[in-house]
Amino acid sequence: MGVHQDIRWLKNNKDRADLFVLVAKRGPARVRELREFLGSDDWWPVKVHIKDMVDRALIEETEDGFKTTDSGEKVFESLKAVYDIESV
User: Fold this and answer.
1) Which InterPro entries match (predicted)?
2) CB of 39 within 8 A of CB of 45?
3) How far apart are CA 41 and CA 65, in angstroms?
4) How far is it, in rounded angstroms, from Cα 37 to Cα 76?
């Protein structure tokens, strides 16, 4: 999948996009931290978003938590550029 398709896919769900940005900005993040970030009492939405992003190869699991892949870094850089342009 291309960067533009991944950006559209992320933007289709605010929570998913927010989780992706959090992982991209902070580096490895654990599921508990991501759940707390969303302010959710339920684990399942967070786990579903994580699984979907892993399946799309945007993030990967490491010993320290989830972090962006090389492909995910490209998406994040493009996403930052899109938001910078939109904010002007």
Assistant:
1) WH_DNA-bd_sf (IPR036390)
2) no
3) 20
4) 18
Global confidence as pTM: 0.85
Q: Which domain holds residue 13?
A: 3-87
Q: What is the CATH number of the domain that holds 71?
A: 1.10.10.10
Structural domain tally of the chain?
Answer: 1
> At what angle are helices 31-38 and 14-26 packed, to 10 degrees?
130
Cα Rg, the chain, nearest whole Å: 12
What residue has token string 């699991």? 61
Q: Which residues, listed in sequence order, are joined to residue 67 by a DSSP beta bridge?
A: 60
Tokens of 2: 């291309």
What is d(CA 15, CA 53) in angstroms, rounded to the nearest whole number? 12
